[in-house]
Amino acid sequence: MMTRRRGGISDQAAGALLLAALIIFVLGPLVCVMVWAFADVWRPPAFLPAEWGFKYWGLVLARADVRQALPVSLTISAIVTLLSAVVCLPAAYAFARLEFPGKRWLLLSFIAVNAFPRFPLYVSIAVFFLSSGLIGTYTAVVLVQLVFTLLFMIWIPAAAFRGVDPRMEEAARDVGASHLTVLLRITLPQAAPAIGAALLLTFVNTFYDVDGALLVGVPDVRTLPIIMLSLITGQIIVQYGAVLSVMLWVPSLVLLLFARRLFESRSFAAGFGA
Amino acid sequence: MTTLTLQNVTRKFGEAYAVNRLDLDVADGEFICLLGPSGCGKSTALRMIAGFETPDEGDILIAGASMLDVPPNRRATSMVFQSHALWSHMTVGGNIAFGLKLRRLPRSVVAEKVASALMLVGLSGLEKRYPAQLSGGQQQRVALARSLVLEPKILLLDEPFSSLDAHLRIRLRDELKAIQRRLGLTTIFVTHDQEEAMSLADRIVVMNRGAVEQVAAPGMIYERPATVFAAGFIGTMTILPARLEDGQLTAGAFKIPFSRQYSANEWTFALRPEDCELTAPSEYGTSPGVVDHVADLGSTRIATVMMEDAVAIKAQISRRQTIAKGDRVGLRVNRLLVYRDGRSPVETTFAAQAETQTPDKIIQRDVTA
User: Is B73 helix (H, G, I), strand (E, B) or coil?
Assistant: First the structure.
């Protein structure tokens, strides 16, 4: 660690410069998208838009494909999140509390899915779906996305379950609670912040997914990010893309606010430390 | 009448015995301390009584009924954990009320019982707080209230005060004892702190390596530890390995006559500091030694005296005695215990001005060095 000296102006200046660069690098694109979303007229050499307003918001929201895609996206994300929770939470509990052969390898296998490039995986799944007639159905999109939620929905809750003090559960048994009551009233509430984070991560990831939905869902299932992709690639009206990306940004923002609370909670850190 | 009986209770972890053939009868309202070093099996024994561990052999009976098939949530026991194990997502009131609500008591009754339990442990008015907002001592009081509110037949405590500082520990200890007396609760208290066990227990169970070394009242254990282990664990004691040669027991240059016909492979002397006196050097009936150091414990002082052949003996000295490191002194031993193969102590007194002689005691005028 460098000790801070009085009058180390060059150090401070360098620090400030680094910070500024970081802010521009991280926030720059976000600000740029924001500005575009509310720019009714903007001719790029100009530093700022000539006219501000909600013109493109109106145009985007009036589009039939956007109006159809929004509920499609929300439904798929909700179904995937729900299914993932139903499948993964019991599995996470098992990983945290039970010993069974091959446990470590099974846990690692969930990383493997996320470690390989996704596109070849999608393509091979798409070929399989094509032969089984699933291509272009909701089922196909849900299944593809479900695979990629396993990592979050098992690892994070498993760490949280492990972090719950077994003495707390014993204390509940001791005062008269059944195994089920202990799970519902002690273990789940103790792990709740991490489970909440996993649910949100799953929802947001599914909501943003483009490639999976594109390869197995199109043309019949069109999610919001796919519409955005076609709007950006089809006609160069930057505002369409900008408005959609600001809309899509909302779930992330919720996640971010939630995560801040979560990381400050002790049980979460204890969960990963265990 | 709530009695607890452990019959031949054994618990193995792999090949190692955590608890080996534990027999114990606890009377109604009795306060028992399980005392021993960490890993001696005292916590495992407690967890078997609570139902969190199942004995491999033996039986546990509460009021005469076997508990082996009764899960912890239906046993008439309640446990206070070392780590307090309060549910951090519930308020203090919620923690205490949890067990009552499971019993489907009416809300007014629950509220009343919670309030009186909090009053009992001196925490009235803290119902709405969360455990994280309390001090360590308050948290442990809440844990105690959570157990007491259910009016258990048997209260189990697993080193409940060991994470608290010394003053608080003594205060909570006194409060616990007062509550236990008032409610007449049968109590099993696990601790590694011999002072805590001495001050709380009606009877102490000294455990070592899964087995019971001695079960007796605190004074009895102090007076006549049944084994060398118990002697070394309770209070301060000088333990010396000895040999029996020509009717004399010898530890270094320290000898006592021993004419009885006992056979043993190992002989051990155990001496309490208060049974050793320091005098001027070469006084009649003393052995010579040099004071190695003096530990001042406030109410008393303990001098460690080096005898010949590097035998170190601890002797209690009064505050008036002017004895310092390096002084040449005489050591007079008034009483010691002789163990044969680590057990069966023979009490041996050396009364310099002996008035009474009982056939059970060897009375010897001097300790020759």
Answer: helix
